[in-house]
Structures are given as C-alpha cells and as structure tokens.
C-alpha cells in the first residue's frame, strides 16, 4: 500500500515538474520589473530597474495610430513595440504589433519562436492562415473581415494577406515580451553565411541555379 502511494506521489511530482519545465516566461515576483538596459547582469530577459527610478513613461508607447509606409515589395509595414520600446513589459509575457497593408500586401510566412499570437482586423479584408507541423503540414486559413479575430498557435508558420480592394490594418497581441520573428524566406535564402546551395537544392528539389537566383537579393 505504501509503495503504491509513493509511486502515485512520484508520478504526480513528475507531472508537475514537466508542466513547470514548459513555462517560458514565469509570472513576475513583484508589481513590475522595468527593464534596466544599462545593467551588466545577464538574465533571461532584463534585470530590474530600481523601482524608485521608474516612471509612467516606462510603460508607455506612442504611435500605433500612425499608418505605416507600405511602399515596399511586400506592400506591408510592421510596427512591433516589444520590451525594447516599452521597458515595463519586462517579465510580463506580452507584446503587441500593428500591421498596415496596401492592396494585395502581405506579411510573408514567418514564425515567432517564443510566442503564440491573436490577430484582430481593424480595417479591410485579410486572409490569415498557419501551417501545422509534420507530418500533416495542413494549411488552416480563413478570410477575415473588420472585427474578426484569428489565433496563430505557438511557433507555427503563419501569414497574412490583404485581399480587399483598399488598405487593411490588423492589430495583434503576442504571449511574449520579446516574441522574436523568423521570416522563412529571409532565414533560408538570406542567412549569413549562406546555407550551401547544394543543401537547399536538395531540400526544395530544384536546380542550384534556382537557389542562386533566390539568394541573390540577399547578397
């Protein structure tokens, strides 16, 4: 009986430990921990500024109401304030992003290595989607109208496209103070130093000349 009880307690402890081990941004242990960018202390995040030096400006960011310049090949503009722009986000596990789109503008396939995301359409008609992991690689997508909300699960590749006739605007919230972004095309064809064209040619099942052409804009 005692052995059975000990086994149950051990399994429970291991389950709880597994849950804790998956936590990537633990809850803060104080009211706030404003990032001290001048501190020499290196932690997963930033050391805390002395609370006596904290002001309201550490929690403030202005400018998300300003429409971004979409005159670029992608036809989109990303305004992504993270802990670098809002020091008060440190340890809170959240951040936000505004995207502006010209007609047919896209936010190309990308992923956030440290966050899931919830997207809201403020203006226009936007196609949003993500791709599930192997072995399925299933595309999950939806056409969104003003006021619609769509969720991108943690770490999965996703994208947005303005499919309406006019401009579009979306606002998103992410579950990390510094979610990071890996643009798939940039990472694969624009790495420094570049990935061997032999590797990419085999991965994409194309001739090396095609790989070289795709890498050319990043050289």
TrEMBL record:
Binding site for Mn(2+): 110, 112, 117, 158
Source organism superkingdom: Eukaryota
GO cellular component, one term: apoplast
InterPro entries attached to this UniProt entry: Cupin_1, Germin, Germin_Mn-BS, RmlC-like_jellyroll, RmlC_Cupin_sf
Annotated signal peptide: 1-23
Residue intervals of the Cupin type-1 domain: 62-212
Keyword RNA-binding: no
Disulfide bond is among the record's keywords: yes
SMART domains hit by this protein: Cupin_1 (SM00835)
Binding site for oxalate: 112, 117
Main subcellular location of this protein, as a coarse class: secreted
Bridged cysteine pairs (disulfide): 33-48
GO MF terms held by the record: manganese ion binding
Keyword entries, A-Z: Apoplast, Disulfide bond, Manganese, Metal-binding, Secreted, Signal
Subcellular location: Secreted, Extracellular space, Apoplast
PANTHER family given in the database record: GERMIN-LIKE PROTEIN SUBFAMILY 3 MEMBER 3
Annotated family: Belongs to the germin family.
Full protein name: Germin-like protein
Species, as recorded: Dorcoceras hygrometricum
